[in-house]
Amino acid sequence: MHYKVFGRKTGLRVAELALGAGNFGTGWGHGAERDEAKRIFDGYLEAGGNFIDTANGYQGGQSEAMLSEFIAAERDRGGAGRQPDARGHCLAAGKSQTLDHGADSDSGFAYA
């Protein structure tokens, strides 16, 4: 995985390949069920990914509900070690109502 610095002052290194989470859920009549979405999410993290595109409207909110669960599980089990940033951050970008906003240095993830 290749990385770039996100913005001028954040210090966050993000993957050049973002994970688009628009198909996490089946609220639009198609997409990935929870178990398949989790496999995709885990595979992305295993490959070194740390930049997730999300929005509160994806799959009628199902996508963010899943991402919230997946990221919380990573945080709870110390998943920051799988992240490439020196501080172990994962950035979820988009219009989010479900995901926490702000940085949580203890969790290993940053949310935008």
- What is the topology, as strand order, of the major beta sheet? 3-4-5-7-6
The number of strands is 7
Sequence stretches where pLDDT stays below 50 over 5 or more residues: 83-87, 95-112
* Chain oligomer state: single chain
The run of helices and strands is EEEHEHEEE
Coarse morphology: globular
Instruction: Please tell me how large the radius of gyration is.
Output: 13 Å
Number of helices: 2
Q: Which structural class should the secondary elements be placed in? A: alpha/beta
| Percentage of β-strand residues | 15-25%
Mean pLDDT, to the nearest integer, reads: 76
Amino-to-carboxy terminus distance: 21 Å
- Helical content stands at 25-40%
Main sheet makeup:
5 strands, mixed
What does this molecule look like?
There is one protein chain. A hairpin with a 7-residue loop joins strand 1 and strand 2. The protein is 25% helix and 18% strand. The relative contact order is 0.20. It starts with a strand and ends with a strand. The protein has 2 helices and 7 strands; from the N terminus they run βββαβαβββ. The chain has 112 residues and is an alpha/beta fold. Strands 3-4-5-7-6 form a 5-stranded mixed sheet, with no helix packed on it.
Task: Describe the structure using short key phrases.
single chain; two-stranded antiparallel ribbon; 25% helix; 18% strand
